[in-house]
Give the backbone structure.
Amino acid sequence: MITFTTAGESHGKGLVVILEGMPAGLPLVPDDIDHQLRRRMAGYGRGARMKIEDDGVEVLSGVRAGETIGSPIALLIRNRDWENWKDIMAAEPDPPGAPPRQRRLTRPRPGHADLVGTLKYDREDARDVLERASARETAARVAAAGVCRILLQSFGVEIGSHVLSLGPIRAPNVTEVPVPLNEVADQSPVRCLDRATSDAMVAAIDEAKRRGDTLGGVAEVVARGVVVGLGSHVAWHSRLDARLAQAVMSIPAVKGVEIGSGFAVAGMAGSEAHDEIAPGGDPRTGMVSRHTNRAGGLEGGMTTGEPLVVRAAMKPISTLMRPLESVSLDTGETASAQSERSDVTAVPAMGVIAEAMIAMVLAQAMTEKFGGDSLRDMRRSYDAYVSRLEHRWDA
């Protein structure tokens, strides 16, 4: 099974990710991963940090001559901002009598991990918490998922996202999502498919910035070409919808996940809520088709072969230039929360990160079902499965 682990702090030397379980023989060059990292850094409303960094990966292990070799893949993303934070973030202990390090965070921000993490880990400076809790860590996830995306692409899976709402601005319903989705969505500064709505979202971001405020929103991820039968109904922890929800909810500031029509089906009658089945279709769907896709490509914890549709709701970022009320960690008395360099909104980037987490879960499910130490072995197993689906009713 594919697994990954990340390490690193927001203003440390860099971020490291170790990805295990990738089959040997997968074509891989760093540029494929760097492209996804650049997409994560984009989006109107991002802060000054994105002007400092120039994210790219160094492959430390697991790849030789442009192909994976079956061993753990280690990737490094260096933080260019480290040069400005050496004295603050250095691992070495301070000499006796040295003054406290600068940039201490003693007035925790409501909505962030600052206060709870400081209490849990018995720290005096919330920077020990915020540096790891920062969404900067998601760059390592996007890098790991960049490898997973290449694996999925080799089996015809295309993953993209677009922004449905940002603050009070909502895009009109899209009757048909373009393919490839990202080629269209990435043309918008806020990754919205509707031009007029995109302009309105940009204006809302400018107004929020003027007020010293932040904005949240909703992004939708669509994965096409996913074969029927990934995941399982037999145990709670193997249900793919549950695994997808957990993965997307792990993204900082995401507070809600919806699959398919999600909450809307709660108000429908059963005759309206479910996707009727008809004969005829693609081998990857089991040679059947659906009139609708309200289930979002998942039934009983398993993929149906229809497009996988997952939406993520992100709250406004916790760092405000007009700080909320808090307490001082030094005195316990009322104080205004500290302000840190941050974004006005990161909803467009969150969509890219949600793509990454969904790619990771789908790649895990693919290797679970089709196994194989090499891509060729995995391909043989996949082709045999699809062939069985195609010829199920031949007799």
